[in-house]
Amino acid sequence: MVFVFCLALTATFVIARAGKDDVEQASSAPVQPDSPRLSSPKDQQATFVEFLDFECEACGAMYPIVEQLRQTYGDRVSFVVRYFPLPGHFNADRAARAVASAARQNQFEPMYKRMYETQKQWGEQQVPLDDLFTSYARELGLNMTQFASDYTSEAVRAQIDRDIADGRRLGVSGTPTFYLNTTQVPPAGFAELSATFDRVLGQ
């Protein structure tokens, strides 16, 4: 399979969006303690991190492969998500804010899945889709007053900007970018990534 990265237009544009304090607090580690997780096994042997953009077609193409990896290794590997919306995607930041807001009501995974499952319907549109993402929250049964507040909150903004700043410090320039523990691994098919997982897990 051939995968094409979604590339950032410029590094300076993305960093400029993060406040000075957020950039200073960014780390060179792929994971933050409060980064959202799709799996967090008790017997954790490795950590798989994805810097993603919900509007990125390459991320959408990798989504079922990541899901297959999670089904296979989720009992031993923690699957972590970092938000990395690219400036060239009109609604990527809005999608990230919607998912981060859902996470604050313990509905991260359902909203994460909804974004990818509907990406072909809303991706590449050059009009604001706040109402569409709000409708997803309503369908998930979220508290809509809280969702609306979180969606425009400084806390959600800071979380996304911190992920972007962390990614930049790591050298992330496009999506999807994967790390297995602290080593960057290229996007690939399930067989190739599974072989990498097996090597790291000592199988």
Task: Describe this entry's structure for a reader.
The protein is an alpha+beta fold. The chain has a single domain, classed as Glutaredoxin, CATH 3.40.30.10. Helices cover 51% and strands 14% of the residues. The strands form two sheets. It has a five-stranded mixed β-sheet with strand order 2-4-3-6-7, with helices on both faces. The longest helix has 17 residues, at 57-73. It is globular, with a radius of gyration of 16 Å. The two termini are 24 Å apart. Mean pLDDT is 90; it is low at 9-26.
Helix content: 40-55%
Q: Rough shape?
A: globular
- Counting copies of identical and different chains, the oligomeric state is single chain
Number of strands: 7
Q: What is the name of the CATH architecture?
A: 3-Layer(aba) Sandwich
- Report the C-alpha radius of gyration, rounded: 16 Å
List strands and helices in order, with pairings.
Layout: E1 6-7, H1 11-17, H2 20-25, E2 37-39, E3 46-52, H3 57-73, E4 77-83, H4 92-103, H5 108-117, H6 119-122, H7 130-139, H8 144-151, H9 154-170, E5 174-175, E6 177-180, E7 183-185, H10 190-201
Parallel strand pairs: 3-4
Antiparallel strand pairs: 1-5, 2-4, 3-6, 6-7
Short description:
This protein has helices at residues 11-17, 20-25, 57-73, 92-103, 108-117, 119-122, 130-139, 144-151, 154-170, 190-201, and strands spanning 6-7, 37-39, 46-52, 77-83, 174-175, 177-180, 183-185.
